[in-house]
Amino acid sequence: MVLQELGIKFEQYDHPAVLTVEAQAKYVGDKGGGLSKNLFLKDKKSRFYIVSALADTKVDLKVLSQRLGLGKGGIRMAPEEALGQLLQVPLGCVTPFALINESASYVSLLLDKEFKTQPHCFFHPLSNETSISVQASDLDKFLKSIGREPSYVDLEANPPVGKDQPPDLAILVPSGTIDIPDAPENSTPSQAVSEKSFPVQKKCTPASVDSVKSAKPSSADPNAKDKPNNAAPQPNAFAESRLFVDEILKKTTELLLSELTEDVAKQEALANSVRKHLAPDLQNLTRTFCSLLQVMFKNTAYTQGFYAGSNCQPKRL
Amino acid sequence: MEKREDKQEEEQEQVVNPWEVTAKDGGKIDYDKLIDKFGCQRLEEPLVDRVQRLTGRPAHVFLRRGVFFAHRDFDEILNGYEKGKKFYLYTGRGPSSEALHLGHLVPFMFTKYLQDAFKVPLVIQLTDDEKCMWKNLSVEECQRLARENAKDIIACGFDITKTFIFSDFDYVGGSFLYFWWDNYIGTHINITTYMQVVGIFGFSGEDHIGKVSFPPIQAAPSFPSSFPHLFSGKDDLRCLIPCAIDQDPYFRMTRDVAPRLGYHKPSLIESSFFPALQGETGKMSASDPNSAIYVTDSAKVIKNKINKYAFSGGQDSIEKHRELGANLEVDIPVKYLSFFLEDDAELEHIKTEYGAGRMLTGEVKKRLADVLTELVDRHRAARAAVTEEMVDAFMAVRPLPNMFD
């Protein structure tokens, strides 16, 4: 298993499938250390979080929601499908280890700081027929090996959040939203395979922890806040130059389809017509669009730097 | 802008000042007469060519089409530029409403071009205090509108490393009051008489004192010392102000006062008024949504507004039209195209064909709808990329070390 590759010491205990912490306690509760409870949460903008805490730690979702900057009641338990789709674990098996999956790249992880006070803690690997106990520091090792920075949070704290006190956990909000289609494309088996070997290096950076929330054009925020009143969300063309190319292709195909013919000579004339009509249009589009694109990218980068620079303070713990 | 109930002595003449623009007898604005009366200069073609040469790129469509048609000492700016002397740009907006229309964008589109072409810094003043006084809006509302307008302004594509946006309520009150005060008071003291201000702006005994002391607030940014975080030590820096010609009175006064304060007179480059959809009887009105195309209008709305409300110079019937051709003087779609259709050759072609009656109004209107939709769509996309943090960054009092790069 991956943990062995990383040289992490762990104790493995197999038992019948358990769906709750109490049930798990029956099998490993007497081994010392702390049992963990793991919540899989979702906010209104389809961003997902795993909150992993000691069984005894009180986790108030309302407080958490505010501290993440989602307002009151902005966060709730994620739907069952999301569990299978994103974490690829069965019900009752939410675990930090699920983040090894590519599908969980945009899931943010909040770890109870109390884990550090325990000699070791129990988590499920990717199956609820097993519990493994690891030290908090080894959990960190695992997380770092998949490209994640562990974020320990005082989950019971309830700091005030207001105009002059920004939400202290806002930085843990993921930068990407995830769309869960209603019917999962490939139905994951209810018993996840526990002995899969996954690539240790993740391709994408853990945007959830490292990103500054502000001003990322591709994030949901600008689209949500600055949407024009006529409902349909405007695609943000600056972050997705793909749209720019699509626009070009759209114009091309429209012109082609309108003059489609079998005649070879006409086809040549058609090709010329395409070039003649499209070239100035596209050049114009490129010139004005690209220069505007350029300056907006520049402005966005500057803004992010400015925000980071002016908000550079140590977090109050 | 406030409409004045009491007429001035020159009832017969057209009225052009920062708060009122009306033509004589409800006709068109006579720009030649205006230039004459104001005492500014025509922006002739040689000057446009010179700009093209100095900047190494085609002159902006507004220059080529004579939208920006008048100036004061723009040639001085160019003289200095040729010798390597830089300048800074200053323009502004009175944020009286959230909805911006194309007419509002015109000075900003042109200013962006100037910033890019000459590679110079820009300060943008949001006169939220002016609107607060004149329109009786609350301070909070004016500040909010200022920020909303700032987003649309930023969406025009200004370079954040060379642009400082400020609102009067935010900037003028703070620690920079000292520098402003110098220029502000200086401007006050050096206007010879109260009557002079009245004469320029047409104030009456009933106007409250805030209104009378506002002009120096709009004047002060013309002096580089008003921005110590940007131009400290650069008292010699010239200022170029792109604006609509109704703002001329403010800067006429400023130019008068400048030498007495020991500064260069600010230069101006002035535009004509963007006509309302219904025709050239003055400026667009924010209160009538059908008099203008707004940056929030969808393609459908734009097409509809143009088809229904744009005043056409075409003839009543197709036969008559083919015979007589269109009246290009009053035709609004052609006027709008002359603002926004970049391709000189195409515009020429349209004018020729439409004027001869070979092209119909519908075709011209369709072309216009396409052009404006593209413009508005582009603006909306840019606007969507502007976040609150970006506004904060543009409005932060910070140095701009690369402002001349």
Automatic annotation (TrEMBL), chain A:
One of its GO terms (molecular function) is aminoacyl-tRNA deacylase activity. SUPFAM superfamilies: YbaK/ProRS associated domain. Residues 15-142 form the YbaK/aminoacyl-tRNA synthetase-associated domain. Residues 154-237 are annotated as: Disordered. CDD domains: PrdX_deacylase. Gene3D superfamilies: YbaK/aminoacyl-tRNA synthetase-associated domain. Transmembrane segments: none annotated. Residues 185-194 have a biased composition (Polar residues). Belongs to the PRORSD1 family. This is YbaK/aminoacyl-tRNA synthetase-associated domain-containing protein. It comes from Linum tenue. The lineage of its organism: Eukaryota, Viridiplantae, Streptophyta, Embryophyta, Tracheophyta.
UniProtKB/TrEMBL annotation, chain B:
It comes from the Eukaryota. CDD domains: TrpRS_core. The lineage of its organism: Eukaryota, Viridiplantae, Streptophyta, Embryophyta, Tracheophyta. Coiled coil: none annotated. InterPro entries: aa-tRNA-synth_I_CS, aa-tRNA-synth_Ic, Rossmann-like_a/b/a_fold, Trp-tRNA-ligase. SUPFAM superfamilies: Nucleotidylyl transferase (SSF52374). PROSITE patterns: AA_TRNA_LIGASE_I (PS00178). PANTHER family: TRYPTOPHAN--TRNA LIGASE, CYTOPLASMIC, TRYPTOPHANYL-TRNA SYNTHETASE. GO terms for biological process: post-embryonic development; reproductive structure development; tryptophanyl-tRNA aminoacylation. GO terms for cellular component: cytoplasm. This is Tryptophan--tRNA ligase, cytoplasmic. Belongs to the class-I aminoacyl-tRNA synthetase family. Its EC number is 6.1.1.2. One of its GO terms (molecular function) is ATP binding. It is found in: Cytoplasm. Keywords: Aminoacyl-tRNA synthetase, ATP-binding, Cytoplasm, Ligase, Nucleotide-binding, Protein biosynthesis.
